[in-house]
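Thread: Modeling a multi-component assembly for a lab meeting

Hi all, long-time lurker, first post. My supervisor asked me to bring a structural picture of a complex we are working on to next week's group meeting, and I have zero experience with this. I have the sequence lines for every component (608 residues in total). Could someone generate the structure of the whole assembly? Inputs are pasted exactly as I received them:
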Amino acid sequence: MSLTTELWQVLVVCFSAIFTGNILLTTFLGMCPFLAVSRQVKASVGLGFAVVFVMTFTSLLNWLAYRYVLVPMELEFFRFILFIIIIATFVQFVEMVLERYSPVLYQNLGIFLPLITVNCAILGASLFMVIREYTLPVTVGYGFGSGVGWMLAIVAMAGIRQQMAVERVPKGLQGPGITLIIAGLMALGFIGFTGVLQGS
Amino acid sequence: MRDKAWYPVLYMFIATAFFSSILIGLARFSRDRVEANQRLSVEKAVLEALPIELPREASSLELHRIFLERVTGPSAASGNAYVLLEGDEVAAYAVPLEGKGYWDTIRGFIGIASDKNAVTGISFYEQNETPGLGAEIVQPPFRNQFVGKRIAEGDRPLGFRPAGSALEESEVHAITGATQTSTRVEKIINEDLAGWRSGLRSNGDSGS
Amino acid sequence: MSVVKEGLWDNNPIFRQVLGICSALAVTNLVLNTAVMCFALTWTTALSCLTVSLLREWTPHRIRMMVQTLIIAFYVILVDLALKAYWPEMSRNLGPYVGLIITNCIIMGRCEAFARSNPPGKSFLDGLFSGLGYSFVLLMVAVVRELLGMGTILGVPMPYFSTLWDKWIIMVMPPGAFFTLACLIWIFRSIRSGEEEKSV
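Re: Modeling a multi-component assembly
Sure thing. I ran the full set together rather than chain by chain. Output:
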């Protein structure tokens, strides 16, 4: 495949990971922290950045692990466990590095890292990458795009909820109920992006 | 013993070894079945695209037998399509279709008669489109409309038109409400048919 | 007996705590897929709780979460292998979501909260009924979505819905899941707060 077609494919996958195939609004992954943290924009932005970072690198690491360890040993089914181990180790490692070398960054992002280990979106992105048989460059684009998409969803949700804090919501809908409805409306909106980029 | 520093490590090691070996054993055991299932689904799709009379409630074993008897594998001479044989003569081709659907990869076959013009059928063995919308491509109403159509020259062998419009002999109806899937399937069919035709031509075939 | 009511109603994982919806919400557009998914989850929860409880005297405190993850992954992989071998079409339909059961907060939650400090019999029941409570909600979502969106239940056309009803396509797409779940939570919470008010 020529370089330009390859690059274009990465771009399309990245675009669709952010908008039309948004990992949260379309494939429903990463809902727990989404519902819990999306009350404030500041926290959401912090968590969002952390997710983008972790998702991009773990997708990459998991691709390498899958291709060079699991497949040759015919242990594909083991990917669930191996991916989780890689993700947990990576997050732990990043937390240690941050704490040591950048206290400022640690204060702002580091506290979110334990939350990320249980974020199903991270594992989900790697699993999708295996199912869709993405190549390495596409995987990186996909991981990055998924992270950005997740961040976009959670920040937008936080912005809306902050505005809504002064509105009257029926008792039964308060909290997760109204959040889900907002999410549904956002999902509806994102569907409008389909077909904007050829192949997205 | 439980207070020793090495106990957790030993425990983890034993636990992992225990559970993993069970899984590895089961994976090996089921591997053959998984591969057989995959091959069977491809063969079934090839047969469904070709103009063969299939027994109504055929078992997988029967289908496999029919496939082995009547169909030969892809070769350069057939442009990488499966070939249905009537004795020694080519009766029809099953051209492989593959491309990105709305959600995931779509894979299937489109059957073209020996005149390299008439469509004998279409089938999909891999798709993950939206149930009720894009996934309708595997249902008879969508697939049956392909039978008897003729593919056009040039780079648009088959055209998709909105449901309800009048159709030419190289056109079919798209699925209402599944515009994305329909567009992509149209693209896949056209690209793969064009590729097949040029594959035949470049193999010294006189074409029609 | 209280364990049963707890799992199914009072502490229903989804209604009460809105936990672990990620993995299953995506497949709720078809009742059949949802049923298989829920079976996989209930199986995993019940058996994982049982195993964690059986091993509770032996498992060192510090690595208990890793051991729990290992056990949960074991049962999930069993289901995944079985599906791939005996029902490949369903395995493809469910995609990565079966694997994502491993990260489902409900299972880990039950293991942590109950199984590791309770006898095997009770732990098994606790896991079983939490799983069933979760399944009960998801099946309701699925029935609503498949009925209103496609006019069928389990693929069988329903009298009014498959003929005269103008199918709500939105139910078949992601936003439909968000809206349906939000409404169910609303209904449930309204009933619950009504009950609580009456008992006060």
